[in-house]
Amino acid sequence: MTDFASSSDSSSPPAPAQGAPSPATLTIHAGEGPRSPGAPVVSPVVQSATFMWSNPRDGELLYSRYGNNPNTVALGRKLAALEGTEAAVPLGSGMAACSMSLLALAESGDHIVASNRLYGATQALLRDELPRRGVETTFVDAMDDDVWAEAVRPTTRVAYIELPTNPTLRVFDPAPVAALCRDRGIALLCDATFGSPVNFRAAEHGIDIVIHSATKYLGGHSDLIAGIVAGSAELMERVARVARLYGPALDPHTAWLLDRGIRTLDVRMQRHNENAASLARWLTSRPEVESVIYPGLESHPDHEVASRLLTGFGGMVGLILRGGGEAADRFMSELTLALAAPSLGGVETLVSQPRYTSHADVSSADRVAQGIPDGFVRVSVGIEGVADLKADFAQALEAFGR
Ligand SMILES: Cc1ncc(COP(=O)(O)O)c(C=O)c1O
């Protein structure tokens, strides 16, 4: 698994003469093999489970579950280049990326410290599933730098964070926890799905393993399920080995589709960023809306740190509607352009209520404590014309206000 920028990698196209290639260039060209006359501009799908091989003289044994199908290998190279890491492992879902990383790093008797602001399934994996394998997790308030050191034990192997967080879009500087992890030999994992590699350069902030649900912004079209893990060659070898045994390989056709999605990641993210900022600002003027949560707004508690850490504020917006859950139900049913559906990061605007989806198993009181009261609507702002989105939101807000 080689880096696009590596001069020793003969399969990579030559890097531009000056400086490292930009993410926009890497999304299109990184990981591709040599181009010669007659070669397809777009690599074909190698829809084969297995490959001709009779003995070790034939080279590496290729079998698609091993993650060494040509589409998966090329995708891994592209993602490593994009994340700025030595290697990356594409897998069959975001949860596969999360669970394979944790199984690779923690074994029975080990301990994990995790942020208490994580995607619901990740919380459940740490809270309910890993203890069955002898791995215990302490959850801490990720917004408080001091609690990490107090929670760490001699047996702590992993610290797990999510940036920005779902759905309140909190952003904190991971530098203090990264320094602690370095000192104690703990691997720092970050689920950077909400930021995408365009908006948040996780590996540049001391993160050892970057995780994405590629189902979201990387794929970008709500038409595939995939995940990626990126980090050092040594750590990725451990993740790949566990994945070979547990088996959540990415199917070659999905790898090909994901690669196609990634080619437009940079332009899509620019438009997601612009649309979300414009919609968020407009929503602050609406009487039906109690508050708007967007890191690009000066009113967001982490606006300053987000401005420093992120290269774009992202496509996610949170709204708290006056009138609580009933108002939110009505608002969602009145939308005609935005679609009511869970998930995020696609070209189409999706709207959901965390109380029914990601935070369904959190008590109402705990949700309120986490800043997610009934009436909270999460918007994954798509790349439609923003005037059309505002018109749709306006008529839905007016309908529930009547
Ligand atoms: C932040 C985050 N991480 C991980 C996941 C899991 O990804 P997947 O559904 O691809 O398994 C999700 C899914 O919504 C998510 O929002």
Overall pLDDT: 93
CATH class assignment of the largest domain: Alpha Beta
Oligomer: single chain
Q: By helix and strand content, what is the structural category?
A: alpha/beta
Write the CATH homologous superfamily of the largest domain.
Answer: Type I PLP-dependent aspartate aminotransferase-like (Major domain)
CATH topology of the largest domain: Aspartate Aminotransferase, domain 2
Give the distinct bound molecules: pyridoxal-5'-phosphate
Distance between the termini: 58 Å
Tell how many strands the DSSP assignment holds. 12
Give the percentage of residues in beta strands: 5-15%
Major sheet description: 7 strands, mixed
Describe the protein.
- With 402 residues, this protein is an alpha/beta fold.
- The protein folds into 2 domains: 23-262, Aspartate Aminotransferase, domain 2, CATH 3.40.640.10; 266-401, Aspartate Aminotransferase, domain 1.
- Helices cover 37% and strands 14% of the residues.
- The protein has 14 helices and 12 strands.
- The protein has helices spanning 23-29, 70-83, 94-105, 120-129, 146-151, 175-184, 196-199, 233-246, 252-262, 265-283, 303-309, 324-334, 364-369, 386-401, and strands at 87-91, 111-115, 136-140, 156-162, 187-191, 209-213, 227-231, 289-293, 316-321, 339-340, 350-352, 376-380.
- It has a 7-stranded mixed sheet, sandwiched between helices. A 5-stranded mixed sheet has the order 8-9-12-11-10.
- Strand 4, helix 6 and strand 5 (187-191) form a beta-alpha-beta unit.
- Helix 2 (70-83) runs parallel beside helix 9, helix 3 (94-105) crosses helix 8 and helix 12 packs across helix 14.
- The longest helix is centred in the last third of the chain and has 19 residues, at 265-283.
- The N and C termini lie far apart (58 Å).
- The model is unreliable at 1-17 (pLDDT under 50).
- Bound molecules: pyridoxal-5'-phosphate (PLP).
- The site of pyridoxal-5'-phosphate (PLP) has 15 residues, from helix 3.
